[in-house]
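Forum > Structural Biology > Help requests

Title: Can anyone predict the 3D structure of phosphoglycerate mutase (2,3-diphosphoglycerate-dependent)?

Hi all, first post here. I have the sequence for phosphoglycerate mutase (2,3-diphosphoglycerate-dependent) but no way to get a structure on my laptop. I'd be grateful if someone could post the structure tokens.
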Amino acid sequence: MVTLQELWLVRHGESVGNVAATGAETAGAEVIELTLRDADVPLSETGVEQARALAVPLAGADGVPEVAWLSPYLRAQQTFALSMESGAAIGRVLTDERLRDRELGILDLLTWRGVAARYPEEAKRRARLGKYYHRPPGGESWADVALRLRSFLHDALDADARGGLIVAHDAVVMLLISLLTGMDEPRLMRFAAANTVLNASVTRLRHDGTQWELVDFSDVRHLEQLGAEVTVHPGSPDA
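Reply #1:
Sure, ran it for you. Structure tokens for phosphoglycerate mutase (2,3-diphosphoglycerate-dependent) below:
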């Protein structure tokens, strides 16, 4: 049985939620004006263009990934479908709920200004516990997401394929990198503070027979090559 030797981690293209969240933060608003639940947020027009541009690295790969795992959220599903329109074909495509975005509980749809104004004690608790261990009421900490991703990797790494593709979310990409390369909390927090997982970017990891190595991080050369906009949305305000 062949086990995975290379993993491609793709963040979904820009979503209407990304646009709304960034707009609310920029305007100094407390609430992100979005009526859809997180699972149903679609790509923006720019996100559609970005997703189609992903066909370039997939088609040019030395062996297209043989299996793909997708977050069940609409923006990830759309990103994968659009990336396949130009001819790249992946035989096995699986949707896995463990790849969903981090759940924010009572902080959902609030900017940082909104959190500070409406839940000041929660903002203080977040500052004390730190990004990795803070769990908003009704939501998840980064550690919680890491636990479900450990479960996912336990299954995925024995997929009987040499290459795999994951289409998911920025926090999921960050945490998969940390789990595969053995980053502890301080190293992960330093890495996350210094780096952003860009929309429709490709991050690649390769197994050398002993350990996983980060080969490319948040690569958007395919967007630049096709003239698609590169968008910087760092994710949830809690990030």
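The chain has a mean pLDDT of 93. The longest helix spans residues 142-156.
Shout if anything looks off.
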